[in-house]
Design brief:
Order of helices and strands: HHEEEEEEEEEEEEEEEEEEEEEEEE
Strand content: over 45%
Distance between the termini: 58 Å
CATH class: Mainly Beta
Helix content: under 10%
Number of strands: 24
Number of domains: 1
CATH topology: Neuraminidase
CATH architecture: 6 Propeller
Length: about 350
């Protein structure tokens, strides 16, 4: 009742309506700015370049905290490593490190990265690391030191026990096949991966972790680096073409492919979804860009000397995305917008 009479009191004369309307407009405008929230989170990536602290030219790990889209800095972790992948809540950062001709998976605390912990009990040749949504399993491909390159398969590793299990039995016929990316589904039940097949084609597949059955997603193309969307409905991937390459998404149920945009070839592209699925980040050499799916605008986030290799976006649970977003947009002139295939 008090609220009712308060509203009536604001309208006794025509003069009183003007400041009320102005206040209402300003309030609605402020709410519209808040609803258009700036992305936040943590990026982790490897950079091929010279690190002064390490004193060598190598793959080194970096992170970048996103607070809107200005003044972002690349923070070196001073660890040699590739294929960074965040733990469930960012308490750990997993990566693969090469040493003496072999590789192992390690973890570090990104807030205090001095000490690292070896995760794999068996050394090998491992690539394309991904963490399960609950943080209890790691998936990667490769072969152990006791195996041959032809034995390249997908492995699961239990982070608590360190036990490793082979998940695939891809026939090699004496020829080593290469995997080109692995991504965990948000429900934790499936893995999307790319695998080269005879004819030098790379197809996308889905592996059911419980049954170990494999479903093919794409054929007759070179498709790389699948990344599952946060809602589980689409998979982002990179398609090779003769004159240019293309970022695409595929609907997991219908297998309908949507082209996003074309890019120039051989410039080191890697991508990941934002935690809410409304943006994607991708790299081009040593620059990381933000792509808005709704507006199709592209913004430059951070630039670093060297070449970015694999990039992973973690939601920052400590900061809610409520700041108004300032649109500093750089739309690529040479990007060709595509339609649905």
């Amino acid at each position: 009742m008090g609220h009712k009479y308060g509203v009536i009191f604001l309208y006794p004369t025509k003069v009183g309506r003007i400041p009320f309307c102005c206040a209402l407009i300003l309030t609605l405008f402020s709410l519209s700015l808040i609803s258009e929230a700036a992305p936040t989170g943590q990026l982790a990536y490897a950079v091929n370049g010279f690190d002064e602290n390490l004193g060598r030219f190598d793959w080194n790990l970096y992170t970048t905290a996103i607070r809107g889209t200005k003044d972002l800095k690349a923070i070196p972790l001073n660890h040699k490593g590739v294929y960074p992948a965040w733990g469930r809540e960012g308490e750990l950062l997993y990566f693969i490190q090469w040493h003496g001709g072999q590789a192992d998976v390690y973890s570090i605390d990104p807030e205090s990265p001095k000490n690292k912990k070896r995760v794999t009990q068996i050394s090998g040749t491992y690539r394309f690391l991904t963490v399960s949504p609950n943080g209890k399993k790691l998936a990667f491909n490769g072969w152990t030191m006791e195996q041959l390159p032809q034995d390249n398969q997908i492995w699961l590793l239990d982070t608590e026990t360190g036990e490793m299990e082979v998940m695939t039995q891809v026939p090699h016929f004496g020829w080593p096949y290469s995997f080109w990316g692995i991504s965990w589904s948000p429900n934790g039940k499936k893995l999307a991966f790319s695998l080269s097949r005879p004819g030098w084609l790379e197809h996308l597949y889905i592996l059911d972790i419980e049954t170990k059955e494999i479903e093919i997603l794409t054929e007759l193309n070179k498709d790389f680096y699948p990344v599952w969307s946060p809602d589980g409905q689409r998979i982002l991937f990179f398609r090779w073409n003769r004159e240019f390459d293309t970022f695409c998404t595929i609907d997991v149920e219908t297998k309908a492919i949507t082209t996003l945009f074309d890019v120039d070839k051989a410039t080191g592209y890697w991508a990941d979804w934002s935690p809410e699925g409304d943006y994607m980040i991708y790299s081009r050499w040593g620059t990381v860009y933000l792509y808005d799916f709704e507006s199709e605008d592209t913004e430059e986030l951070v630039e670093i000397e060297g070449s970015v290799f694999v990039i992973s976006w973690l939601r920052d649970i400590r900061i809610l995305p409520v700041e108004p977003r300032k649109k500093l947009v750089t739309t690529w002139g040479d990007i060709k917008q595509g339609g649905t295939q």
